[in-house]
Design goal:
It is a single chain. With 351 residues, the chain is an alpha/beta fold. The protein has a single domain (3-197, 234-258, 292-313, 341-348), classed as 3-Layer(aba) Sandwich (Rossmann fold), CATH 3.40.50.720. 41% of the residues lie in helices and 16% in strands. It has a 7-stranded parallel sheet with strand order 3-2-1-4-5-6-10, sandwiched between helices. A 3-stranded mixed sheet has the order 7-9-11. Helix 6 packs parallel to helix 8 (264-274). The two termini are 24 Å apart. The structure holds nicotinamide-adenine-dinucleotide (NAD).
Length: 351
């Protein structure tokens, strides 16, 4: 039996990834390891309550002993590492939390994987090397910093993070690289553009604007709203990670993106129009310090080497996403009221 340890599986992308993994690989044992910060919502995974090949462990990735116990108990074959503090605004007010979780937490996972996975250092540089174990590190295009009006981030672009969040992710990327180069740990890194889709915590741009629109509240837009982001549907991201997991080469970085560049203002206007609301709801607010102007991903390597391209057209994906939030008002309400946090206690605390 193959056991995949998914860190941060109660978060937005992690929970979508677990659903993808179960649909694609029904025989895998999935171990979801998440400490359930405010961003972790186990209700996203209700459908797994009766799945005997799914396990949840409420564990902090910085807890070396607990991670060691999990590797020993579950005989882990692969790690897909999502767990992180992920909100740029929060990283500006609480940088230390981002450094300990995103950097030291990653190091704990790398160390533990090293101890448990017998390495074969002579094969480290062979592109066809296929050990039975694998560590996929999920990262972000934000590690590359900001682009001008033209050009794209490739895997060879310099690392130049501008926020404590992106600096902590860039640091974890470099650690992952170092564990490959120094110890031959079989790692792969993905760097993806902005994701959208169901189950995203409503502090992030798209669900935040949808929620405000649905509640007829002002829509706060940073600065002039002309910051450009490249948007990818979360299910395309999950499929890309799965492809990298199965077919990617060790020690490599893969950029994942959707070729859907939109300014933040354009995006807000799309949402306003979908609800038939007035643009008068838009409220420009003081810009975020160090706010990157433009991100855009060149995902040619994913297409050429691994045959992956996104399935979603942005117009279709955003319409479906808006529809999902409209049809699940209770999901947002349970987050806004904090009720989602009681689910773990009711389901797991008696075990
Ligand atoms: P999220 O904030 O929705 O989820 C993060 C999850 O990690 C939560 O469930 C949280 O409880 C858990 N977590 C946090 N600290 C932990 C700790 N110390 N121990 C165990 N679990 C912990 O984030 P997301 O948007 O799903 O992003 C997942 C990953 O993908 C992150 O590494 C992020 O950097 C990366 N990424 C995100 C995007 C995006 O657009 N959201 C784009 C590219 C890359």
């Amino acid at each position: 039996m193959r056991t995949i340890l998914v860190t941060g599986g109660a978060g937005f992308i992690g929970s979508n990834f677990i659903k993808h993994l179960r649909a694609k690989h029904p025989t895998y044992r999935i171990l979801n390891v998440d400490v359930l910060t405010y961003a972790g919502n186990l209700e996203n995974l209700r459908e797994f309550e009766a799945d005997s090949l799914y396990h949840f462990e409420k564990v902090d990735i910085r807890d070396r002993q607990a991670i060691e116990r999990l590797f020993r108990t579950y005989d882990v074959d692969e790690v897909v590492h999502f767990a992180a503090e992920s909100h740029v605004d929060r990283s500006i007010t609480e940088p230390e939390l981002f450094l300990t979780t995103n950097i030291l937490g990653t190091q704990v996972l790398l160390d533990t994987a090293m101890r448990h996975w017998k390495r074969e250092p002579d094969n480290k540089y062979s592109r066809d090397y296929k050990p039975s174990v694998c560590f996929v590190h999920v990262s972000t295009d934000e590690v590359y910093g900001s682009l001008g009006a033209t050009g794209y981030f490739t895997e060879d672009s310099p690392i130049a993070p501008n926020s404590p969040y992106s600096a902590s992710k860039a640091s974890s990327d470099l650690l992952v690289r170092a564990y490959y180069e120094t110890y031959g740990l079989p790692v792969k890194t993905t760097r993806c553009s902005n994701n959208y889709g169901p189950y995203q915590f409503p502090e992030k741009l798209i669900p935040l604007m949808i929620h405000k629109c649905m509640s007829n509240l002002p829509l706060p837009v940073y600065g002039d709203g002309q910051q450009i982001r490249d948007w990818l549907h979360v299910s395309d991201h999950c499929e890309a990670i799965d492809v990298v997991r199965e077919h990617g080469y060790f020690g490599e970085v893969y950029n994942i993106g959707g070729h859907n560049e939109k300014t933040n203002l354009e995006l807000v206007q799309i949402i306003i129009n979908a609800f038939g609301q007035s643009e008068e709801l838009i409220q420009f607010v003081k810009d975020r310090p160090g706010h990157d102007r433009r991100y855009a991903i060149d995902a040619t390597k994913m297409a050429d080497e691994l045959g992956w391209t996104p399935r979603y057209q942005f117009e279709e994906g955003i319409a479906e996403t808006i529809q999902w939030y409209v049809e699940h008002p209770e999901w947002i309400e349970r987050i806004v009221s904090g009720a989602y946090r009681t689910y773990y206690d009711s389901m797991y605390s008696s075990f």
